[in-house]
Every structure is written in structure tokens, then in C-alpha cells.
Amino acid sequence: MEKNVIRKMLIAKMIAHDKVVKARRDEQLLWDVLRSSAYQDSQVIATYLSFSHEFATLPLIKQALVDGKTVLIPKTYPKGRMIFGEYKEDELIQTNRGLFEPESEKAFSKDKIDFIHVPGVAFNEKGFRIGYGAGYYDRYLTGFSGTTVSTIYDFQRYDFEEEKHDIAVREVFVR
Q1: Cα–Cα distance, 47 to 49 (Å, whole number)
Q2: Model-level pTM?
Q3: 147: nearest Cα among 31, 50, 74, 39
Q4: What distance in Å separates the CA atoms of residue 3 and residue 135, rounded to the nearest whole number?
Q5: Which residues contact 58 (CB under 8 A, 6 or more apart)?
Q6: Residue 141: burial class (beta carbons within 10 Å; 0-12, 13-18, 19+)
Q7: CA dihedral of residues 52, 85, 80, 141 (deg, nearest 10)
Q8: Which residue spans traverse the membrane (predicted)?
Q9: Residue 54 CA to chain centroid, in angstroms?
Q10: CA-based angle 10:52:69, to the nearest 5?
């Protein structure tokens, strides 16, 4: 099956996900991440501000700040370019796609990031992912030596053949 077909099918499932079940799974996934050595051993973590149909990242962001970690979120540019900037709740701007990004253009150096929480729509057993189709994360993760994790719902596990430019996530938490 083509990536676009898989993407559309699973996004529809994510949107239709029962809200009570989703909230319970989000809480379990949050605890899975917080208990992981990947999180525990990290000082600088990058995540994203989630859409309502994705794993809710705001509780992760808030806990990481309480834990004294530096939290970064992505800022995107044309032609698939992405940087990570520091998360500051009062310094976010909304993009034309409805996402919130750092207002600042200041990029955090890739080699200073310990942990990247990677979004995605579908993940195969080897940790390869189908994202939203723009290729931002595959480009950014090229040459990244830190830890990568993702948090997904069980129905987002999907058997597909990865492409040579795809980069696997090291640890996928599933609920």
C-alpha cells in the first residue's frame, strides 16, 4: 500500500479515536517516556506541540520543565528545513498550518540535543515511520547521534516497506 493511503487511513483512525481511551493511553505513554532511561539521562529534549489527534505532548513539556530540562520545539521553513528552538509558552507564533512554533529564529545546535521525541502516523516493527509527508524529521535526523523516541497508539503499528532515505526511531512506546 502507498504511504499516502496509509497516512490518510491512520490519520482518520487517530481523529476517530475515542477521547476517553485516548486520554488514558496518553497518560500511560507519558509515564512510559518519563520512566525511560532515554528521558532520565537527557538534559535537552526536543518534542513538538501536538495536534489534538496525536499523543498529547503538553504534559510531557510541562513535566520536563519541572524536571529542569531544556525543552525545544520545531520551527519549519520552506523546502523541508527545520530547526529546534527553545520552548517558551509566551513566545509562540501560529503557522498557516495551525501549528505553534517558537517566535525566535535562534536554532539550538543539533549536537547539544540529547533526546528527540519524533511524531509520526505509522511505524513499522523496525521503528521506521510514515510522517505527515514533508520529510522534515528524516532530513533533521540525518547525522543525529542522540536518542529518538516516539509515542503511538497500537493501531499506528503498520507493516510497510521503508525507503532508503527513511530514518528509524530508536524506541517506540506503544499503548
Answers
A1: 7
A2: 0.96
A3: 39
A4: 13
A5: 49, 50
A6: middle
A7: -90
A8: none
A9: 9
A10: 110
